[in-house]
């Protein structure tokens, strides 16, 4: 779930606090691993202010926790990814507080990939001879995202949906860990997260 505090502008400027629940579907896009879409949630706080004409600016901090699933030779290996997102978004007001388009950059600071089941640590990954699930925990910790979405509804209740794309290489840290010395196929890692988010905002 995520928490957001918003100030929206139509014919007059006002402040409003909103509580938002956001569900996420997460995909790790990469040619190095066989991945499976998983889910999670976001929770955070944001502020909205009038900027220029029909544009607002939104600043926010969100907590993210989502699953990432990678196919092993014998079974699917689930991980958990946790982090914090700092966002600065522009919001184009199509119909005042009732409908808007939102877009902009997000800075994500995350932990590593945490195995849900440590008993799977030595599971060999599909497509590799010696690379195992435990070798993938140390991903890049600072990542850039771009997002675009839409929110709409009533004055006190709005639906929100967006897509976030990780334009930096979240698997880049693997390239400095000499994993190819363990498995010759473990080279040139590149991966980008894609998150589909949807939720409800209730204004207090």
How would you describe the overall organization of this protein?
- Helix content is 0%, strand content 59%.
- The chain has 204 residues and is mostly beta strands.
- It has one domain: Porin, CATH 2.40.160.
- It has no helices and eleven strands.
Low-confidence blocks of residues: 1-11
Number of helices: 0
User: How many structural domains are formed by the residues?
Assistant: 1
- In percent terms, what proportion of residues is strand? over 45%
Q: What profile does the largest beta sheet have?
A: 8 strands, antiparallel, barrel
How many extended strands?
11
CATH topology: Porin
User: Which CATH class applies here?
Assistant: Mainly Beta
The residue-averaged pLDDT reads: 89
Helix content: under 10%
Cα-based radius of gyration, to the nearest Å = 19 Å
The side-by-side strand order for the widest beta sheet comes to 2-4-5-6-7-9-10-11
Distance between the termini: 16 Å
CATH architecture: Beta Barrel
N-to-C order of helices and strands: EEEEEEEEEEE
What are its keywords?
0% helix, single chain, eight-stranded antiparallel beta barrel, 11 strands, 204 residues, Porin, disordered N terminus, mainly beta
Write the layout of secondary structure elements.
Blueprint: E1 2-6, E2 16-30, E3 35-36, E4 38-52, E5 55-71, E6 76-93, E7 99-110, E8 114-115, E9 142-153, E10 157-166, E11 191-203
Antiparallel strand pairs: 1-2, 2-4, 2-11, 3-5, 4-5, 5-6, 6-7, 6-8, 7-9, 9-10, 10-11
């Amino acid at each position: 779930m995520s928490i957001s505090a918003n100030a929206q502008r139509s014919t007059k400027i006002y402040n409003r606090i909103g509580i938002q629940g956001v569900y996420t579907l997460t995909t790790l896009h990469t040619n190095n691993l066989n991945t499976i879409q998983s889910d999670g949630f976001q929770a955070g706080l944001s502020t909205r202010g009038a900027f220029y004409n029909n544009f607002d600016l939104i600043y926010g901090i969100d907590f993210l926790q989502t699953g990432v699933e990678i196919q092993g030779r014998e079974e699917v290996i689930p991980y958990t990814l946790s982090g914090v997102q700092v966002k600065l978004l522009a919001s184009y007001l199509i119909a005042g507080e009732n409908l808007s388009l939102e877009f902009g950059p997000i800075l994500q600071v995350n932990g590593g990939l945490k195995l849900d089941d440590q008993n799977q640590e030595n599971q060999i990954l599909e497509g590799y001879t010696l690379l195992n699930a435990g070798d993938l925990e140390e991903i890049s910790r600072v990542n850039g995202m771009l997002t675009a979405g839409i929110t709409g509804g009533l004055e006190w209740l709005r639906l929100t949906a967006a897509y976030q794309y990780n334009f930096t290489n979240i698997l880049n840290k693997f390239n400095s860990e000499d994993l190819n010395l363990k498995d010759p196929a473990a080279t040139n890692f590149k991966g980008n997260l894609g998150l589909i988010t949807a939720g409800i905002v209730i204004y207090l």
